[in-house]
Amino acid sequence: MSKRFFQNKTAVFTTLIVLVVALIGILAPVIAPNDPYETNIINKFAGYSMEYPLGTDQLGRCVLSRMIYGIRPTLGLAALTMVGTIGIGAVLGIMAGYFRGIVEEVIMRIVDVMLSFPSQIMVFAVVALLGVSVQNVIIANVFIKWAWYARMIRTGVMQYRDKNFVQFSCCVGMPERFILFRHLLPSITSDLAVLASLDIGWAIINISTLSFLGLGVQAPTPEWGAMLNEAKEVLTSNPTQMIAPGVAIVALVCCFNLMGDALRDVLDPKEVK
Amino acid sequence: MLKLDKICVSFRSERQDKIFGHTKQQILFDVSVEVKKGTCLGILGESGSGKSTMGRVLCGLLKPDSGNVLINDIPVYASKSGRRELQNKLSIVFQDYTTSANPRFRVRDILREGLYVRQRKERMRLDQEKEINRLLELVGLSSDFAERFPHELSGGQLQRVCIARAIACNPEIILFDEAISSLDAHTQVQIMDLLLELKEKLSLTYIFITHDLTSITYLCDDVLFLYQGHVTEHLSVKRINETKDTYAKKLLESIVVFETEEAV
Ligand SMILES: Nc1ncnc2c1ncn2[C@@H]1O[C@H](COP(=O)(O)OP(=O)(O)O)[C@@H](O)[C@H]1O
Ligand SMILES: [Mg+2]
Q1: Residues 6+ apart with CB under 8 A from B225
Q2: Which residue minimizes the CA distance to atom 5 of ligand 1?
Q3: Residue with the larger pLDDT of the pair B264 and A166
Q4: Counting ligands in written order, which one lies closest to the CA of residue B48?
Q5: pLDDT, tens digit, for every residue of A65-101?
Q6: DSSP designation for B141
Q7: DSSP reduced 3-state for B86
Q8: Contact residues, chain A to chain B, C-beta under 8 Å
Q9: Which residues does chain A have within 8 Å of residue B92's beta carbon, measured at their own beta carbons?
Q10: Where are chain B's structural domains?
Q11: What angle, 0 to 180 degrees and rounded to 10, lies between the N-to-C axes of helices A119-130 and A134-161?
Q12: Is B44 helix (H, G, I), strand (E, B) or coil?
């Protein structure tokens, strides 16, 4: 498995980028050249310079430092969203797929109801209901997304449960946890990994969108979407200010999408080289 | 040792007259059979006659609507202990070898699963490496196959691995559900020879499901004809020519024709 991973250039490259970005986010206090919250009105809209590599924004704050600190909410919240989504989706999906009967009926009808709402509207509704805060954005995202995962995981579990190798395990009485953790979960992991890495891009955009609309991360916390929102306000006087957060969001989301594709190749055991 | 007593099985049919209808389609009708220790029972029937369904009832995966499955006079579906008893005694080899083994497992891991069952059953630790090599040798594969993945093996080789896995559990009965039907003729003969040899060596009992009469005459002691879920004939292979059942006769005739054509 690891051998095939290292042979796939896209997988290695994109994973490396994500890791480096994450590392920069973690080490933000060491790496950032300036304090991201320090305002300096006199020096606003400064161009690129040694002291402010990406210039300053409308309040004279260092854009690069804000970008670096912005990794934490951007990537961290997206990751948190995915962990929540997959966690809830996996538990309910496996329950529905494995136990069948009444459990399945109840879970799947709830899933159907969840899937019948347009997702963006649901996010707004949840945020409007619970109030504007980061926490609620994550709750809203998990709330609308888990149903997709529950359904996908249930389908996967059902598909593999009827495969002969699982039937053999049942027949000779292997313990349930062996069947679950050695047969079923690894089999659906590849689909899951692909979907998750595509969706983490979705989560980043979604959190950024909400921040852009002023419903997510609140000023003055640096977050890429929120920074884009601030840049929008000064679009006419300093158009270059939106380049850094805009490009960063696009690049990171692209990276996750490519990673999703590459992971599918890596995780498929029958993929020929 | 394994006994079916008046088994009926039905599935909910696809076409329902009412919206919440429960129209059922019966697949097996009053199937009774007894498998004796050390023999090989062949179950013969055309496609869709309910052979695999019967197999699933036999190996404890499908609870019948009515009737009893008894192993050494313990009812299988009545209690957990009966189920466990069957699980300890019976192992299975499937027709479709492409899905018989987890594509993420190496041959080594596939066999380990069987060995795990045996360890639990006999409450002792086995030298896994040695056992894996012994099993591979038993089914006529060299020990460097242990590191391969299922998709790196040919059909015959993979089916041998599946047989090795079935044997790894140290069962008393092995159920073959069309285990050789999807292999080519030459490999079929090789595998059947292997099965005969293993039966002698390990004193096993076989239940052999197939739609092919030739392999039954080669391998089995008794044969059971299944036609649309009914047992139409149950007799020993030696007396197969005396069958009164029309379907069985038709099958026999088709074989004769087949052989004469080949002779020409
Ligand atoms: N899970 C199921 N649900 C509904 N019908 C089934 C199911 N499994 C098998 N059947 C039906 O039972 C009949 C016998 O199938 P099977 O036992 O697989 O036949 P075969 O003798 O070819 O192995 C078929 O008509 C099939 O459609
Ligand atoms: Mg069948």
Answers
A1: B44, B45, B231, B232, B233, B234, B243, B245, B247, B248
A2: B11
A3: A166
A4: 1
A5: 888 998 988 888 889 999 999 999 988 998 898 887 8
A6: -
A7: helix
A8: 163-165, 167-174, 178, 182-183, 186-187, 269-270
A9: 167-168, 171-172
A10: 2-263
A11: 140
A12: strand
Cβ atoms B154, B183 nearer than 8 A: no
In tens, the pLDDT along A53-68 reads 777 878 878 888 888 9
As given in the structure block, the two tokens for residue B169 are 């559990």
Distance CA A146, CA B258 (A): 59
CA dihedral over B22, B28, B33, B37, signed as positive or negative: negative
Residue identified by tokens 């419903």 is: A215
Fold type of domain A2-271: MetI-like fold (1.10.3720)
CB B6 within 8 A of CB B67: yes
The β-bridge partners of B257 are none
d(CA B2, CA B208) in angstroms, rounded, equals 14
Asked if the Cβ–Cβ distance from B116 to A174 is below 8 Å, we say yes
Which of B78, B81, B134 lies closest to B108, judged by CA?
B134
**For residue A132, which of A6, A27, A219 has the smallest C-alpha distance?**
A219
In terms of Cα–Cα distance, which of A185, A110, A192, A95 is closest to A144?
A110
H/E stretch holding B205:
strand B205-210
Rounded to a whole number, what is the distance in angstroms from the first to the last CA of chain B?
45
- Other C-beta atoms lying within 10 Å of the C-beta of residue B192: 17
Q: What are phi and psi of A256, to 5 degrees?
A: -65, -40
Distance CA B105, CA B112 (A): 10
For B209, phi and psi rounded to 5 degrees? Answer: -95, 130
Q: Which CATH architecture is the domain B2-263 placed in?
A: 3-Layer(aba) Sandwich (3.40)
Prediction ipTM score: 0.87
Judge if the beta carbon of residue B225 lies within 6 A of ligand 1: no
One-letter amino acid at A28 equals A
Which residue has the least CA distance to atom 26 on ligand 1? B48
So where are chain A's domains? 2-271
Q: Is the CB of B50 under 6 A from ligand 1?
A: yes
Phi, psi at A195, each rounded to 5°: -60, -40
Distance CA B156, CA A235 (A): 69
Mean pLDDT for all residues in chain A? 85
Chain A partners within 8 Å of B59 (Cβ): 171
* B234, β-bridge pairs: B224
The continuous run of DSSP H or E covering B234 comes out as: strand B230-236
Instruction: Find the length of chain A.
Output: 273
Contact predicate B71/B57, CB 8 Å: no
Contact at CB, B92 and A165, closer than 8 angstroms: no
